[in-house]
Amino acid sequence: MAKPITCLAAVAWEPNKPLVIEEIEVAPPKKNEVRVRVMASSLCHTDSYVHQGRDPEGVFPVILGHEAAGVVESVGEGTSSVEPGDHVILLYIPECGKCKFCRSGKTNLCSVIRETQGKGLMPDGTSRFTCKGKSLFHFMGISSFSNYTVVPEISLVKVDRAAPFEKICLLGCGATTGYGAVEKVARVEKGAKVAVFGCGCVGLSVIAAAARAGAGMIIGVDTNEVKREWATKFGATHFINPAECGEKSIETTLIEMTFEDGAGGVDYSFDCTGNVKVMRSALEACHKGWGQSIVIGVAGVGECISTLPFQLVTGRVWRGCAFGGVKGRSHLPEYVKRYLNKELRLDELVTTVLPFEKVSEGFEKMHDSNNIKTVLIYR
Ligand code: NAD
Ligand code: 022
Ligand code: ZN
Questions:
Q1: Where are the domains of the chain?
Q2: What confidence score (pLDDT) does residue 341 get?
Q3: Mean pLDDT of 18-46
Q4: pLDDT tens digit sequence for 306-316
Q5: 342-364: pLDDT as tens digits
Q6: Whose CA is nearest to atom 13 of ligand 1?
Q7: In terms of Cα–Cα distance, which of 18, 23, 36 is closest to 151?
Q8: CATH superfamily, domain at 178-322
Q9: Atom of ligand 1 nearest to the CA of 372
């Protein structure tokens, strides 16, 4: 029988207060749960957003982190898909394969554990983390800012042991989100004209995936001039900084750039900024009759998008996706293989590597416009 493990974790005791590296106790995995030794975890905006107390549903004290890879340490009763020693990527969108959503074949939004996960608890309504006699909440079903974590069996996927943790952790969120949005959601085809708003980890992954899909024109859009070189490196054929459009709107500029046979507009646009004004521009930059705009960026709570209904009546499509529409357990092993075959780019996205203990320094680096992804390495 597995025993509790004492280890280190970054505890967010209260919103906006510095994370504290504490000694915590991680309970053994219960039925259909797995205890994982976290080997690498990258920082993502949602961690920072919740830490700052900007998510009204955020609960404290909590262990943040949701983009991670590790090794199975022990398994609870009834767990058959993994065993100790297996290398895994953690999934903030689980895949049970049985719920209405999983069976639909139309979405990756598995919903069996949605309610408890949103409350920061395991499916049985309790937590596996204790610190100084207090129970700590889980985060997005993952809580990777800890040497050990416990997740439901459906919230992880076994992957090729040859893949380095410090790279494939990016497949736990940002990179997969970009590749999936292009390949599973938009299904960008050869020759297509694509505009990508926001060239961070997600946008650059969209650009790389669109290039692989054979898109004819890939226009990166970013207000940060530094991203021109990044977008080009990942396969953008064009780049626009909205500041260079002068009086013209970015959508008008894009329509003019793509004008052909009496009409302009992109076949696909992607919002990778989370800015609702940008989302509108991304939709309105689409070609009449068929252009699709994919919302990937997560906007602030309560913010609304708007456009003239005319935009949709004339055939433009506004849609969105979570985790790129990717089903973690079904699709990620293939993504890891593609990374190993150099058909999926992760290496260049990692711009900072820090020991786990320096997680707070990592959060500060997120504001640095030259930094794409910070990866924490665990001992
Ligand atoms: P990031 O901060 O690294 O990148 C965002 C980029 O957008 C930056 O380069 C920034 O300069 C640019 N930008 C900001 N305002 C802009 C504007 N007005 N016009 C053009 N560019 C602008 O972030 P990221 O890690 O790449 O994530 C992007 C977004 O995707 C975030 O909102 C994140 O929360 C969201 N996200 C969504 C999912 C999902 O499943 N839907 C998953 C991961 C991330
Ligand atoms: C990850 N995200 C942004 C940056 N990194 C992110 C945040 C939220 C979602 C997806 C990615 C998201 C989209 C839709 C949902 N979520 C709801 C899914 C559902 O209702 O089934 C979402 C998810 C998890 C949590 C909250 C919202 C959570 O665990 N608290 C997937
Ligand atoms: Zn994320």
A1: 5-158+346-377, 178-322
A2: 98
A3: 98
A4: 999 999 999 99
A5: 999 999 999 999 999 999 999 99
A6: 198
A7: 36
A8: NAD(P)-binding Rossmann-like Domain (3.40.50.720)
A9: 3
